[in-house]
């Protein structure tokens, strides 16, 4: 399998001048752990993630280095720490020039890049533009949904996947972080919904695409006020049976 067969196409981006507060609120509202950072032309310039908000002065989690360690590391490290803890814009805390992949990057290479660079997500680029993102969650979904003795995805499966995504993204009920995996005509839907009626709409949308044999629902419901989440009924039944 390759990146384009499991990636999330609906990528949420911010600009280098986006405020830290706004970026954090976007992550919370959209239930994502990272955002791509693009310039005015849409070119990828960085990635900002939950890890970039851990060491912050507002919550008293700034680094506390001893005097001797500060002497060894030098003033440059202290200056970088200060920017990370007090920066007001995304450009001041993001990872610049992030590792990227293309739509044709094989999953084995993706895993290797994640492990070697200690990252949890990789932007998928076509030239300078971001066309998707592959996260550890996408890989987990591939393992959970496709760990069976069936053929690798075919060209038809790729077309089915594209048609399903195109259909759903036109609607305001489209799940956040929608991911669609298709193998041998069997569809696995995952993502986050905040309205239970969106679950049936998503399943029906997939069922109406020609070539689909069966649809598995892995959509997670989240209450936007409390953050409480529930797995799909299908996943709950599988958990009880295991």
Number of strands: 10
Q: From N to C, what is the helix and strand string? A: EHEEHHEHEEHHEEHEEH
Which architecture of the largest domain does the CATH hierarchy give at level 2? Roll
Distance between the termini: 27 Å
Biggest sheet layout: 4 strands, mixed
Task: Indicate the proportion of strand residues.
Answer: 15-25%
DSSP helical segment count: 8
Shape: globular
Query: What is the helical fraction, as a range of percent?
Result: 25-40%
Task: Please name the defining characteristics of this protein.
CBS-domain; 10 strands; 23% strand; alpha+beta; four-stranded mixed β-sheet; 242 residues; globular; GMP Synthetase, Chain A, domain 3; 36% helix; 8 helices
Describe the fold and architecture:
- InterPro entries: BON_dom, CBS_dom, CBS_dom_sf, Diverse_CBS-Domain, UCP036990_CBS_BON.
- Residues 7-65, 94-150 form the CBS domain.
- This is CBS domain protein.
- Pfam families: BON (PF04972), CBS (PF00571).
- Residues 156-223 form the BON domain.
- This protein folds into 2 domains: 3-146, CBS-domain; 157-241, GMP Synthetase, Chain A, domain 3 (2-Layer Sandwich).
- It has 242 residues and is an alpha+beta fold.
- It is 36% helix and 23% strand.
- Strand 9 (214-222) and strand 10 (229-230) form a beta hairpin.
- The strands form 3 sheets. The chain has a 4-stranded mixed β-sheet, with no helix packed on it.
- The protein contains 8 helices and 10 strands.
């Amino acid at each position: 399998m390759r990146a384009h067969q499991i990636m999330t196409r609906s990528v949420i981006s911010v600009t280098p001048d986006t405020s830290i507060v706004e970026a954090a609120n976007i992550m919370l509202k959209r239930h994502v752990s990272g955002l791509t950072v693009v310039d005015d032309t849409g070119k990828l310039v960085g990635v900002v993630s939950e890890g970039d908000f851990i060491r912050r002065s507002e919550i008293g989690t700034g680094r506390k280095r001893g005097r001797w360690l500060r002497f060894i590391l030098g003033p440059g490290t202290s200056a970088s720490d200060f920017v990370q803890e007090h920066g007001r814009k995304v450009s001041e805390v993001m990872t610049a020039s992030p590792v990227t992949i293309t739509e044709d990057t094989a999953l084995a290479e993706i895993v290797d890049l994640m492990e070697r660079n200690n990252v949890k997500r990789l932007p998928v680029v076509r030239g300078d533009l971001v066309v998707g993102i592959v996260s550890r969650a996408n890989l987990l979904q591939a393992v959970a949904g496709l760990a069976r003795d069936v053929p690798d995805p075919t060209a038809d499966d790729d077309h089915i996947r594209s048609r399903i995504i195109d259909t759903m993204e036109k609607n305001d009920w489209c799940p956040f972080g929608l991911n669609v995996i298709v193998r041998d005509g069997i569809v696995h839907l995952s993502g986050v919904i905040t309205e239970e009626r969106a679950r049936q709409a998503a399943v029906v949308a997939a069922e109406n695409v020609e070539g689909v044999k069966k649809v598995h629902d892995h959509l997670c419901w989240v209450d936007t006020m409390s953050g409480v989440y529930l797995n799909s009924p299908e996943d709950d039944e599988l958990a009880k049976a295991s």
